[in-house]
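Technical annex B. To support the medicinal chemistry partners, we prepared a structural model of the target in complex with glutamic acid, based solely on the information shown next.
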Amino acid sequence: MNNQKIRVRFAPSPTGPLHMGGVRTALFNYLFARKNGGDFLLRIEDTDQTRYVPGAEEYIMEALRWCGIKIDEGVQEGGPCGPYRQSERKALYKEFALRLIESGNAYYAFDTPEELDALRAEHESRGETFTYNAATRGQLRNSLVMNAVEVQKLISEGEKYVVRFKMPVNVDVTESDIIRGTVTFNTDRLDDKVLFKSDGMPTYHLANVVDDHLMQITHVIRGEEWLPSMPLHVLLYQSLGWESPKFAHLPLILKPVGKGKLSKRDGDKMGFPVFPLQWTDPFTNEVSSGYREDGYFPEAFVNMLALLGWNPGTEQEIFSMEELIEAFDLARVGKSGSKFDPEKTKWFNHQYMILKPDNELAESFNVLLKEKGIDAPLDYVVKVVAMLKERATFLPDIWEQGFYFFEAPTAYNEKDVKKRWKEGVPEMIEQIASFFVRYEGAWEAFQMKETFSAFVTENEWGFGLVMNAFRICIVGASMGADLFEICEMIGKDETIKRLNNAVNNISIV
Ligand code: GLU
């Protein structure tokens, strides 16, 4: 398979919104494919109809699109190995189940769910666990203990059956995993998994192996939770006479605090999203937050995810998608789980806020302004954004930091007023207002500051006292960007208006 084109797939089941761990799996597959000039496929594994959730498939595709993960072959894209939705490939799997029966690697099992439940309960009452395996299959209702005529009779009478894999006895299955090295499992610890269900659908195991083969997948890159399935999959490849793809099982993403895997339920409980996009459960209407709706840039989210489990081997932390593709190497993915850090995720967003072109940020910020009923010229917004983005993690922070660029204060911060609005201040502000009325220099921060400073000195006022009170008039509080820059931006008339307003509306406390 050396000269074979690299082909990988992301194979989610549409059982709900895609967890960020799933997005990372998709991302690592994508990076690996791009880095090696290969193909990235999206296959929807929807053979378990009981777990199907409407909207989940669309959500998965939308999430990948938002992250900039481009699919070469998939449900929407099509491709030479389609269909890419397993429910549409239903007819295909039975043939392989039958092939496995013919070669003696699988068998029909007629045990009803009730019979199996009873066996489980009976074992449990003795403190044991019932397993369908080499030790028990000889006493159960299956084609290993019946003759061919009996089997055919049951089938033609419409008796329900499943097809089970006949796990070989005491065989060490050894396989190499790109991330974990050599992994060995003994078959005596594995059960006779169902491959084909009574509803005519394959199980995950059969469909996954058949499709990976038919879709010419060269590398299976997936979450650690699938590692225990690897021996069965390897045996299935062998039994079908196919070469196995290479495997890479990614480490878990762990909770930021405490032990264990970051679960779907952790997010809103711990105060951060675990999903890329907001999700409304179609059955309960419960809403789970998403990175997109919480104001994260997709680049920041992707950058953060890439470094969860993968280490570039350098100090570099900020990577564009192109840089990730260039630097990515499965050999640098660690075995042990990585703790998710919500604060670091915010840090990434802040970094991208600084990196993003002012124009682009201004356009997004304008949407937010429009929602507030504010219509500002784009070049004005660009200037505000450029001035404030260093102080912002999310776009709404720019509003928090710079609302006064767009509207006059409607209230004045009580604490700041108490501290700064002293006896004599209103008279001083009145004089400042007249100073600006008389001012004929350029309406430009540097020039204004010089002339104004001279005016303050002339009056023998304390500079701190003046500037603090002046700021309260313009901003409404002791905060914000350089005061003269604000005045330059809002203009002469507005500056004078705000000074007069303050004199009329603030009382000394
Ligand atoms: N359908 C499986 C899932 O939901 C795919 C596992 C695999 O990649 O083999 O994760």
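Notes passed to the chemistry partners:
The mean pLDDT is 96.
Residues 11-13, 45, 204, 208, 222, 226 surround glutamic acid (CB under 6 Å).
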